[in-house]
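User: I'm preparing a small set of examples for a lab meeting where we compare how different chains pack in three dimensions. I only have the primary sequence for this one, and I'd like the structure in token form so I can line it up with the others. Please keep the answer compact; I'll paste it straight into my notes.
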Amino acid sequence: MFYRIVISTMIVGGLMSGCKPKKEISTSTQLQPVPESDPYGDSSMVFVIMTMYRDSITGESHVTVNEKIYAAGRVKSNTNEDTDGANYLTCILYRKDEAIDSVRLMHPLKKQVEYVGEDHQMRMKEISLEKADFSVRFQLTGGENRVTVRETLETSGAKDLISIPL
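Assistant: Understood. Below is the structure token output for the 166-residue chain.
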């Protein structure tokens, strides 16, 4: 009896493994770097993934680039985030020395949180983080050479933090 079960299991397993599709189907999208001569033409975009941190001694913000990813495709729209406060970032795309596109983001190190106060009313409070990741994407049409990240703070105004070559 035991041998019948083992043999039946082997036959069913063999039949099922023989019914696999010959070509494996990929469910993930691979992003390929864009070479110097852009084969995508005006349908390419760049994703810039960055980390922002605050220097604990000087209190100044710094940005480092984690990765730049070039991919075929079109950016549907670059919408500016609702930046109700006076603390935000502006990412500016340049072609030579001309700003051709920009995106405004909420400041990654300044977060607005809601909580219920002692009087059972909703309250808002701003908290400051030491480190946070953020990203931006831009449509590329040719000739773009850099992205600048500009920080605007309520207390000190606007300051360019980093210029990222593309």
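A couple of notes for your slides: Residues 20-29 have pLDDT under 50 and may be disordered. Helices lie at 2-18.

User: Perfect, thanks.
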